[in-house]
Amino acid sequence: MRLLCLLAGSLAVAACHPRPEILPRQPGEPSLITRDVSSYAEPDQVRVRHVSLDLRVDFAAKVLTGTATLELDWRDPSAYAVVLDTRDLTIAQVEAQLDAVWQPAPFELAAADPVFGAKLTITPRDKPTKLRITYATSPEASGLQWMAPELTLGKGQGFMFSQSQAIHARSWVPLQDTPSVRFTYDAHITTPPDAMALMSASNDPAATRSGDYRFDMPQAIPSYLLAIAVGDLVFRPLSARAGVWAEPAMIERAASEFADTEKMITTAEQLYGPYRWGRYDILVLPPSFPFGGMENPRLTFATPTVVVGDRSLVSLVAHELAHSWSGNLVTNATWSDVWLNEGFTTYVENRIVEALYGRDFAEMENVIGQRGLRDELEHDVKPADQVLALPPLRGRDPDEALSGIAYVKGQWFLFFLEERFGRAIFDDFLRRWFDAHAFTSVDSVEFERFLKAELLDKVPGKVTAEEVRVWLHDQGIPSLARPATSRVFNAIDRAAAEWASGVLPTAALGARSWGTHQWVRFFLQLPPTLPAAQLAELDAVFHLTGTANPELAERWYPLTIRSGYLAARPAMKEFLKTVGRRKVIKPVYEALAKSPEGLTFARSVFEEARPGYHPITSAMVRDILAAPAAP
Ligand code: BES
Ligand code: ZN
Prior knowledge:
The structure is a single chain. The protein is α+β, with helices and mostly antiparallel strands and 631 residues long. 37% of the residues lie in helices and 20% in strands. The protein has 20 helices and 23 strands. The strands form 6 sheets. A 7-stranded mixed sheet has the order 7-6-10-4-3-13-15, with no helix packed on it. Helix 9 crosses helix 10 and helix 14 packs parallel to helix 16. The termini are far apart. It binds ligand BES and zinc ion. The site of zinc ion (ZN) has 4 residues, from helix 6. Zinc ion binds next to helix 6.
């Protein structure tokens, strides 16, 4: 087969590559790595080791133009093609460097697949060590958002940012877009002279604006951690190695909200070893950022919606910081094993939060998280996706398979192990897991092997192989799982029940002293609908309509929709028009889509909101509103 392919030459490239499910083990790699079906790349043939970007940021055309130079490590003697991932890229030319001379290299861009984009096959002669691709992105690039000045806080200049996870890096850089490949990178970025550019790399807190920026990322990262942001951004230090970047109008509030960041870093270090990435800065994005946070190395991206003034939502920082160990240091090799990123991180996040804010706080978060998982399993996650170790996501968008299973069930599994072995032993085990796999990509098979060898066999009689199998491979929440409990919530549950049934007057709720978590619990314990007059009373006392707290908004607005409390509609519309964070607007749009009247309202809001939404938020809302309203 291989010989035939060689003879046939580059014309037959696409058809000729066998797609083995298992890559051969490479020296220094801990285990056999399952092939990543979310990428066209063939890293067993050749691997990208370093990427050099030279890109111009063009706000008028909403495109990045320039070159990506890839340094190659040829693995297979019979390899002759470099297969890259792209999405909506215009490839102007590809050159290969041979004997220090750049020469054009033949390439073929296949027809685009709606989920995976277009496979780029380059067939240079003589296995060059470098390829240079000259290209431009599309204004619709799925991994970039371009914002007009009106959509920013300062309204003085445009803003652009990337969101590469899971498979959107390919929409702004042609590369092997798979978490099983790690590379170092450097970048030369040119922007309008008054704009500040930042990347998931070395960012100089003292940088002056020049429109000409250079970045270096000496630690090898997977493609989904490639990140860039450009806009009117200023810096405030939080400690010697941590700080915040934000638009000027947000910077003071953000710096005060995230004041505990250094404590979080030292807490994580005490548990799992040194923070290995140099600086840890947080970039506060415009409210259209589609996620809560994104763990871009050295530069966490965060939604401004967690800046609520009372630091009640800073577990988001603990979460993204935790990824500096689970995810960025030890990375899921494919998106089937995303629980190795998100489950471990949700566990570590809770350990940091407990150390800083106490057990009650950490328990409340766990109770809310586990309740969220149960609700999600009832409605939104098909049984086959309710396992931690997912089968290959062939043909599927990896984001579609991602659910609370990876986050909460993953975390729950680690709580289970912690409880059985005790904290001292489990903490030591986890630290060794990170150390032994630092800067590599891993899968569930490797975790199972390491767990058995390093914990189950060394400390026998605590956990059986069968119990591990149930956690990793059975659907749903195992009967082994001990649910989290919170004594704080007992009082809230009583208040919710008594208030809902009319026994407890609104004035006697005692909610003045509630924090975000108590309010969330209160909403979760209410019946699905209440008399509109009763909601009006609650609203009059506590001003829930118009709340800036996303955790309240995402529960309050759906309750008002289900209960026909229409007074909330204008503020709800404003909320949907400013916030693009998918998790918080999803339940609101879903609740609206359940009635014909709500659907009409939602469609008109979406039309107005859309110019300010990120492409992936727009895609989500479009899908919700496309479904016909239930009768
Ligand atoms: N890495 C994720 C965000 C992500 C996951 C982006 C999958 C694209 C695909 C990030 O660490 C995360 O989990 N963010 C959460 C917040 C966190 C506190 C649970 C979010 O954005 O909701
Ligand atoms: Zn995460």
